[in-house]
Amino acid sequence: MERIYNFSAGPAALPAEVLEQARDEMLNWQGCGMSVMEMSHRGKAFTGIIEQAEADLRTLMGIPANYKVLFLQGGATLQFSMVPINLLAGRSADYLVTGSWSKKAFKEAQRLGKARCAVSTEEEGFARLPAVGEFDLDPCAAYLHVCTNETIHGVEVHDCAALPASVPLVADMSSHILSRPVDVSRYDLIYAGAQKNVGPAGLTLVIVREDLIGRVMPGMPTMLDYQVHADNGSMLNTPPTYAIYIAGLVFQWLKRRGGLAAMERANVEKAKLLYDAIDASALYRNPVERASRSRMNAPFTLARPELDAAFLAEANIRGLAGLKGHKSVGGMRASIYNAITLEGVQALVDFMREFERKHG
Ligand code: PMP
Asked: Going by CA atoms, what residue is nearest to atom 12 of ligand 1?
């Protein structure tokens, strides 16, 4: 069977090369006579796998030595709680509310302590990133939380220099991590669910400056304490071993492809192809201000919503899947993560043009 182009927001497309390697190694990983899924997480083989994965991630992202890399579970959603539980330390935190995901993170922090909304673009439909001048910042905040790519609304922070440096910066990078180089030292904590640009669902990456941890809220479960995870090398309990193994293969694939600078060049080209096609059309529309548009998630609507079902059905026949927009905003969304090739985006654009000629 031919593989389709999968534009799903996550779990999402993985590089075919990675899946082929996993298939080849499935029954007998490197001559050890068993699958990675069957290995003890404390054995020599798996220890090698997780150490290599961490080393490769550190190289790819240029993670400084004073940052811990944690391989956790519970998705990015658990980080909405773990961040305040570990970093509030009795103080207040500021949140930029720029889309559904940062709004959720803000709400969760409010349940756990004091959290302020420094700015919200909700009344404008989350269609742009606010400028620093619009932020109402607390200079004593324990941290400022930002979602650097809003997966549902399709807005992305393109320049981290545009974020204030006065308080620790916490970033939810779930849907654009590894899509471009990032200056890790500008952030104090970065987290990301793996199921978009990293690997399978079930793994969450946390990259945190080591001096920020060790001040967890009293009375919290041990599993929610970053310090304990760091002290145990992400082996406090059984980690998601197979997801870590696949993530490690993705890291090696990225290194072979030339690293994050090469991925960024490819992603800029892919996003330009798609947005140019949307902007040139009378049928499709992306609501986001140009400078804030996400390279990874492009939501778009059809001028005649009665055509939505036909669009999705005809796309599916062409092997273009996962294009239905998030239920909260409707319309369409094309997620074009690292594993989606330029050919994949071209196939989508060709189909969109053909559909418009036929129905527009
Ligand atoms: N943050 C962002 C930016 C996301 O896109 C998502 C999931 N789509 C989440 C958080 C929640 O992630 P998870 O499902 O891994 O908990």
From this structure: 76
Q: Give 236 Cα–ligand 1 centroid separation in angstroms.
A: 23
Ligand 1: atom nearest CA of 195 is: 15
Q: Does any ligand 1 atom lie closer than 6 A to the CB of residue 101?
A: yes
Rounded distance from Cα 75 to ligand 1 centre (Å): 7
Ligand 1, pocket-test mutation among 77, 104, 148, most atoms within 8 A of CB = 77
pTM: 0.98
* Catalytic residue list: 101, 172, 196
Q: Running DSSP on this structure, what letter comes out for residue 301?
A: E
Contact 68/226 with Cβ under 8 angstroms? Answer: yes
Does ligand 1 come within 6 angstroms of the Cβ of 294?
no
Cα–Cα separations (whole angstroms), residue 101 to 58, 104, 146, 155, 175: 26, 5, 10, 11, 11
Count, in order, helices (H) and strands (E) of the chain. 9, 14
Q: How far is the CA of 77 from the centre of ligand 1 (A)?
A: 6
As a whole number of Å, the CA-based R_g of the chain is 21
Q: How far apart are CA 297 and CA 171, in angstroms?
A: 17
What does each of the 360 residues of the chain score in pLDDT, given as a tens digit? 689 999 999 999 999 999 999 999 999 999 999 999 999 999 999 999 999 999 999 999 999 999 999 999 999 999 999 999 999 999 999 999 999 999 999 999 999 999 999 999 999 999 999 999 999 999 999 999 999 999 999 999 999 888 988 899 999 999 999 999 999 999 999 999 999 999 999 999 999 999 999 999 999 999 999 999 999 999 999 999 999 999 999 999 999 999 999 999 999 999 999 999 999 999 999 999 999 999 999 999 999 999 999 999 999 999 999 999 999 899 999 999 999 999 999 999 999 999 999 997
Cα 115 to middle of ligand 1, angstroms:
20
Eight-state DSSP code of residue 256: H
Helix boundaries (H) for the chain: 16-24, 44-61, 75-87, 100-112, 226-231, 241-256, 259-279, 308-317, 342-359
